[in-house]
Amino acid sequence: MKTDKNQEKIYAPLIREFKNQTYDLYKKLWKNKTADLSGLFIPHVFDDYYNAKTKVFFIGQDTYGWPELEKTYNWSEKDYLAENNKWPESVDTTLEWTNPYTFWNFVNKVQLAFNDEKYDSLQNLSSSQRKILNQVGWGNIYSLEILETIAKYGEEFNQSFDHSVYSDLLKKTQTISRLKNVIEAFHPDYIVILAWKYVEDWYLEELDAQFIVEESIDNLLSVYKLNNGTKILWTYHPQALCRKSQDLEELIKIFLDRK
Description:
Blueprint: H1 5-27, E1 44-45, E2 56-60, H2 69-74, H3 77-84, H4 91-95, H5 103-114, H6 127-133, E3 136-140, H7 147-150, H8 155-158, H9 163-172, H10 174-177, H11 179-186, E4 190-194, E5 210-211, E6 222-225, E7 231-235, H12 238-243, H13 248-257
Parallel strand pairs: 2-3, 2-4, 4-7
Antiparallel strand pairs: 1-3, 5-6, 6-7
Helix pairs in contact: 1-9, 1-11, 5-13
């Protein structure tokens, strides 16, 4: 995906500040480095985002296998953003996720629904529908992987770094991770957050988000409205929705009712 001037304006100074504040922490991180942790994930948009009639930004939890943490500190902010924006290389990459309970499969279905598009299969879309999928914005609540995600890499890797130091690094990313930065950089009309378990007060700081009681559904959907008109639809990750036996097509209809 392209390097984005709006993204660079908002996020490059935040990356620089994070590096300056945490470099000494980073030097204390490793006990016995055998592989690297993921570096900062910076929200970015697909190539046709700014041509969208309705701009939708999708927010997950955290992202594994991202450019190495070492690059965050050793590369310029501009070069790091260019590396950060490489995935996905094209819409084809997101369409490889065929399980309906994966993040990208659900994102693609919601994106098409918000644009009133009907289709038989995500693998048989028209060129105009594929263009709509190239108008997605993508971010995460956490700019670094949380320890719960890293635990999946196995005991040997988890013993190779200091968890206390890493927790301090993660906390320092809150300034970058706050949702207000996505608003200021990309001006989305809708934000769909797919990470119910990790609701954090700091994430909505400085947004004056109004909770819409009548549009929210207990233990399924929280709806917020911002002063600038942006609407937030906050629910579970699709995999968690699977465990709840939630019908995803029905949930998409609920989303549309709240447009």
